[in-house]
Write a structure and sequence with these properties.
The protein is mainly α. The protein has one domain. About 85% of the residues lie in helices and about 0% in strands. Helix 3 packs antiparallel against helix 4 and helix 5 runs antiparallel to helix 6. The radius of gyration is 20 Å and the shape is elongated. It starts with a helix and ends with a helix.
Amino acid sequence: MSALASDHLEQTLVRSARGKAAGLSGIGFALAYLIGTASLNAPLSGTDQKIVEFWSDGGNQTAAVISMYCFAIAGLLFLVFMSNLRVRLATLDTRSTKLSEIVFGSGLVFVVMLFVSGVARGVIGFGTKSHWSQPVPNADLLRYLPQISYAAGGLALLAAAVAIATTSVMILRGGAFGRWLAWLGFVVSLVLVVANGLLAGVAVIPAMLFWALAASFAMWRSSARQA
């Protein structure tokens, strides 16, 4: 009996530690994604001279590199967050193996597209600030690289909408974290999809961050109860 009790206690501690790690990684993801988004506001319109001047500024080049690395960090933290979230949901709802695969798969697509978006944001600053010291490209390229970043970011949020909606379904089926998080997830997913349909996906990044923080809070509170 003592061995069984010890094993049960060990499993409980592992689940608690995993939940806290997921909560912290979710908060870290939201913070890194916010900094990466807010640190660079590249012009999408204006004269060629205005755009070239923006990218020729050393401070803006540094901000672009910071933004790129923040996106990379955010993506890695999101993988940790979604992996732990998927395990937690699958444990409570063993019938939803395929759904948990959708959660992780769409989350992985989100991370890949986030990396693409980050590279498009930071490649000019990286090239000009590195020891190779590449020249600032022409205005046409400077116009389209930020557009590539925004397009990839919008597609990333579309993949995130799939992951969030599927997570909400699993929450309702398995009873994890409370129904409030499921309904919040459905609302956020709808907002992300509609915004992408209007070609304004990046405008609703705060909705994605709000869900991540809410899910992190739910994971942390759940792990605290298990401890």
